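A reminder from the course coordinator: this example appears on the midterm review sheet, so study it carefully.

Given structure:
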């Protein structure tokens, strides 16, 4: 079936010498993997490949036309172009590191091929916001927390008066159980829940961001089977050190 849709590049893996396997979150069909033969060959430039290999960088926003056979095998692009050419993400080391890190988070979090247009629209809007703003020290933390709404384990905030957050149960509690954050960690977590992308970025010190990042990674590990911590985690820590 020929499909025209927006897509967000989640990952790309070189296959043999000249080809790529590209995983995308599509607006129309959810998670899809595509085989790009001879992706590095000049003859493919006219089809949107070749030197435009930069299209397949982490979290690039694309408009694609593709043949979807929906048989569990690799699909194939027919046409491809940028839906939005990033103005700052590709040249800003902090933003590009954030994007690399988040692409790994998404790669290890979205396991089903089902359509999730709300998640797609949220990620698209968030990436456009990141490209247009310079104050983004908490962006990755807010996005990771907000994505849990779509994954089904957003924290239950109905009893946030309590001093401890239970990571396994996903709620606040009066007593510090085995899977609970400390009182200080819970305080930081509550502050994060209240943040928006355009909130004051100086609300956390660097060490507090490191604490919150560990909390979120542990929280994902509790609720997503087989979740792996990103390889780019240490690079991200260096950037925000």
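Designed residues:
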């Amino acid at each position: 079936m020929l499909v025209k849709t927006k897509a967000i590049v989640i990952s790309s893996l070189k296959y043999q010498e000249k080809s790529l396997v590209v995983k995308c979150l599509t607006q129309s069909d959810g998670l899809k993997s595509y085989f790009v033969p001879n992706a590095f060959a000049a003859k493919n430039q006219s089809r949107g490949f070749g030197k435009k290999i930069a299209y397949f960088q982490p979290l690039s926003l694309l408009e694609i036309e593709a043949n979807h056979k929906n048989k569990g095998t690799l699909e194939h692009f027919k046409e491809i172009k940028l839906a939005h050419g990033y103005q700052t993400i590709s040249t800003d080391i902090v933003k590009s590191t954030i994007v690399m890190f988040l692409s790994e988070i998404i790669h290890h979090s979205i396991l089903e091929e089902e359509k999730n247009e709300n998640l797609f629209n949220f990620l698209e809007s968030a990436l456009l916001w990141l490209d247009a703003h310079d104050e983004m020290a908490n962006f990755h933390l807010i996005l990771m927390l907000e994505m849990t709404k779509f994954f089904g384990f957003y924290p239950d905030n109905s009893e946030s008066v309590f001093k401890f957050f239970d990571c396994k149960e996903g709620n606040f509690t009066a007593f510090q159980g085995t899977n609970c954050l400390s009182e200080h960690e819970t305080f930081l977590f509550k502050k994060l829940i209240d943040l928006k992308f355009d909130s004051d970025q100086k609300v956390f010190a660097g060490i507090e961001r490191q604490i919150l990042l560990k909390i979120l990674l542990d929280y994902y590990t509790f609720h997503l089977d087989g979740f792996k911590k990103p390889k780019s985690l240490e690079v991200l820590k260096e950037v925000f050190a």
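The radius of gyration is 19 Å. The first helix runs from residue 93 to 109.
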